[in-house]
Amino acid sequence: MSNQLIFKGTEDYIVSDDLRNSVNISVALSRPLLIKGEPGTGKTVLAESVARSLGLKLIVWNIKSTTKAQDGLYVYDTVQRLYDSQFGDHDVSDIKRYIKLGKLGEAFTSEERVVLLIDEIDKADLEFPNDLLWELDVMNFYIPETGETISAKHRPIVIITSNAEKELPDAFLRRCVFHYIDFPNEEMMEEIVYVHFPDIQKKLLHEALKAFYWLRSIPGLQKKPSTSELLDWVQALAVGGIAPENITKELPFLGTLLKKNQDFDLTLRQLHSRGMDGREREKDKYFRSVMRGY
């Protein structure tokens, strides 16, 4: 990979050796990098880190349930052309005026190499990944309305994220370098928090992490708290002046960590069953008021 761009990570994004290698292999092989992992493991932020590390522009294509592969290539604005033919003074015979490139088209026509993030590809229908296979392989696409073929001036670094809501086609998977981001362990999570809050009190962080991973271990949670929720919680604990020894006993500001009523009630039952505080009724009332506040 001596002639290739090498991703080494950035100061504000803690990356494992395996993930760093997967990025560099995908760049070397000119293959899209498919990233899976539960929400909050940094899949989307990875693309931002890669772009900053390599000094490249980032283009983001956010995928929705209604997104079609064609949207990423180009859009032919027939409505505007019809409007101009009736009320405007433009030459509507020039169809190029009404062709707008999508995010993939922008990446192909960029004067410099870019990082293209195709974010949450599994939100689209099952045909979406297959519809992109040809363009991602040959790095060009055809516009029949104008008779043009748009070819990539520079092959973009393509990073694709998936929350595994749907299985992706085998043909698509074969063309990607795959990496699953495991949820950070306590040691790595401590590094992540210190990147964002370098002055955080060590004992407060220790107790917060202990409570955080206990909370994630509760069976049946619909939405486990992720890294972003932990960062919010640690900041709330510090700003709120919470004593470290009270964090695991009281779980203050629980609404920063849990976002679903069912998870909140389940956690309350777990807390009560642990018998950490005899004032169950007062605690229950307090936690519920905090939850409503968020």
What would you note in describing this structure?
- By secondary structure, the protein is of the alpha/beta class.
- The chain has 13 helices and 9 strands.
- The strands form 3 sheets. Strands 2-5-8-1-9 form a 5-stranded parallel β-sheet, with helices on both faces.
- Helix 9 (202-216) packs parallel to helix 11 (244-250).
- The longest helix has 15 residues, at 202-216.
- The chain is elongated, with a radius of gyration of 24 Å.
Largest sheet: 5 strands, parallel
Q: Shape from CA axes?
A: elongated
Low-confidence stretches: 276-283, 290-294
Q: Got a strand count?
A: 9
CATH class of the largest domain: Alpha Beta
Query: Structural class from helices and strands?
Result: alpha/beta
Radius of gyration over C-alpha positions, nearest whole angstrom: 24 Å
Order of helices and strands: HEHEHEHEHEHEEEHEHHHHHH
In short:
This protein has 294 residues and is α/β, with parallel strands linked by helices. 47% of the residues lie in helices and 14% in strands.
Would you spell out the secondary-structure blueprint of this structure?
Blueprint: H1 17-29, E1 33-36, H2 43-54, E2 57-62, H3 69-73, E3 74-76, H4 78-87, E4 99-101, H5 103-109, E5 114-119, H6 127-138, E6 140-143, E7 148-151, E8 157-162, H7 170-174, E9 177-180, H8 186-196, H9 202-216, H10 227-239, H11 244-250, H12 261-274, H13 280-293
Parallel strand pairs: 1-8, 1-9, 2-5, 5-8
Antiparallel strand pairs: 3-4, 6-7
Helix pairs in contact: 8-9, 9-10, 9-11
